[in-house]
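Cross-check.
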Amino acid sequence: MRQTLSIASYLAVKEVWRNRGRFLLVSLVIALIILLVLFIAALGEGLGNGNREYLSKLDADLIVFQAKSDDVIAASRLGRDRLAAVRRVDGVADAAMIGTSSASLILPGDIEPLKVAMLGVEPGRTGEPNVVDGQQLNTDLASEVIIDRNTAIRSNLTIGDILTVRVTQGTRDEFFDLRIVGISDGRQFQLQPSIFVPFFTWDRIRSKSEGEVNSLTSVGNVVLVKLEDPAQLEQVSQWLVAQVSNVETATLRTAIQALPGYSAQQSTLNTQGDFTLFIGILVIGGFFQIQILQKVAQIGVLKAIGVIIMTTYALETQSLI
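Predicted model, tokenized:
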């Protein structure tokens, strides 16, 4: 058996060396296909992570949406009265409102303004990211901001700097100054770098329509809920829907899948990766099939030689007997 494997290995090495040009080209094709599969996989993971990064890192068990919002954060609108009602439900350990909007950071020099997601969070509650450098937000009314690592890298801003935000309120562009007190890890929201502002400060400086400019009502998008016992998720979810008017609940996973374009994007890229892998298998299989077919005649000759040798050996053995 060992001798057979040794001969087979010897013949294989000689075959590859004899046709080294052909095997080199096929190896390059295989390497390019593998590179393409890895590129598509990395692209899908990068785009997906850019969409879900903030939500996937939340220390929450449920998200409360406005009813009939299809679990889309941007489509949900909840007032502070709903937040108070959510906190009164049994099994809720903590609840905090978050608001989302877009803004532009005005950077010094001739640098283009940086588009960011501006999120309003409640200091000290779920939704506020933990900082890796600096300190947490102080109060709901402070003119402070936490920026995520992506924002820090792209803007060259650091702790203690004054950050200028441009938003559209009504038909005018408004500018607000905020002091950077902390930097968090990567927290992209819908493919944009993020900044985190105390909720009431966010409500004051966020982009508004003409009808919202003079409104005194604070409105957020969703309420994040942390449970006393995560095993009661289904039960608490039912209590929330029953006891709080005009709301629906979803898990973080469901909310991520409902992000605009997320599911379609991931399914498209996964399909491309699967087809590329399938094509690679066909190419490799076709190459080895052609190699085998080209050797059929040689294999037949070797078999014939083997039969002749065995016959001759048998005849000589009988003559000696």
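The two ends are 29 Å apart (CA to CA). The first strand starts at residue 62 and ends at 66. Passed to J.P. for a second look.
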